Amino acid sequence: MADAAVRLEESWRQALTPEFSSGYMQSLKEFLLAEKQAGKHIFPKGSEYFRALDLTPLDAVKVVILGQDPYHGAGQAHGLCFSVQPGVRIPPSLVNIYKEMQSDLGIPPARHGFLESWAKQGVLLLNSVLTVEEGRAAAHQGRGWERFTDAVIRTVNERCDHVVFLLWGSYAQKKAAFVDTSRHLVLKSVHPSPLSAHGGFFGCRHFSKANEWLAMQGRTPVDWRLPETVERP
């Protein structure tokens, strides 16, 4: 994990140095190494564990969207929550996110699920757990990632101003419960999963509300419209 820290985007590397030097991260590194040596397939690939941070420097963060676990199917996860690689079927929760965007902003649903253009505009697409074993959802929960991503959220809360937190579902809301609402905007709804989206995600208008608030703070709104076609780097 230490070599990954060296490659990490500089502002995050500096802010998170205490985490990378801690015992829990060393234990996490040893766990991941043992899993790989045992022949298990881990997603996303190692160079993309911190992709969300690499694409969205600390001083560029405008919006934080919290997910829980990477997708555990082959070829899906690439380090951004809710996002999948080009050419991969759009997951059900993201389909519902697109539906709400269309209702809220009139943006037609994209034909892909690759969300890097959001990340490059300052949308931190952060999962709580950054790795998973193929075919085993939540296999890496409780191994230390949650503590690390708590530190990421705490860093945004303390060092950034005027950030919108989109907290979809009880898990995300509990994880970011400490966010200072006097400095940041916190928008909550149920999760966009097909199991819950009709209970309050549809109609939440979080995308327009986020942009309206950012504009009020003198920050450039997010262009939520995704490119029509994408190629994976």
Automatic annotation (TrEMBL):
<keyword id="KW-0326">Glycosidase</keyword>
<dbReference type="GO" id="GO:0004844">
    <property type="term" value="F:uracil DNA N-glycosylase activity"/>
</dbReference>
<keyword id="KW-0234">DNA repair</keyword>
<keyword id="KW-0378">Hydrolase</keyword>
<dbReference type="InterPro" id="IPR018085">
    <property type="entry name" value="Ura-DNA_Glyclase_AS"/>
</dbReference>
<dbReference type="InterPro" id="IPR005122">
    <property type="entry name" value="Uracil-DNA_glycosylase-like"/>
</dbReference>
<keyword id="KW-0227">DNA damage</keyword>
<dbReference type="GO" id="GO:0005737">
    <property type="term" value="C:cytoplasm"/>
</dbReference>
<dbReference type="InterPro" id="IPR036895">
    <property type="entry name" value="Uracil-DNA_glycosylase-like_sf"/>
</dbReference>
<dbReference type="Pfam" id="PF03167">
    <property type="entry name" value="UDG"/>
</dbReference>
<dbReference type="GO" id="GO:0097510">
    <property type="term" value="P:base-excision repair, AP site formation via deaminated base removal"/>
</dbReference>
<comment type="similarity">
    <text>Belongs to the uracil-DNA glycosylase (UDG) superfamily. UNG family.</text>
</comment>
<keyword id="KW-0963">Cytoplasm</keyword>
<feature type="domain" description="Uracil-DNA glycosylase-like">
    <location>
        <begin position="54"/>
        <end position="214"/>
    </location>
</feature>
<protein>
    <recommendedName>
        <fullName>Uracil-DNA glycosylase</fullName>
        <ecNumber>3.2.2.27</ecNumber>
    </recommendedName>
</protein>
<dbReference type="InterPro" id="IPR002043">
    <property type="entry name" value="UDG_fam1"/>
</dbReference>
<feature type="active site" description="Proton acceptor">
    <location>
        <position position="69"/>
    </location>
</feature>
<comment type="function">
    <text>Excises uracil residues from the DNA which can arise as a result of misincorporation of dUMP residues by DNA polymerase or due to deamination of cytosine.</text>
</comment>
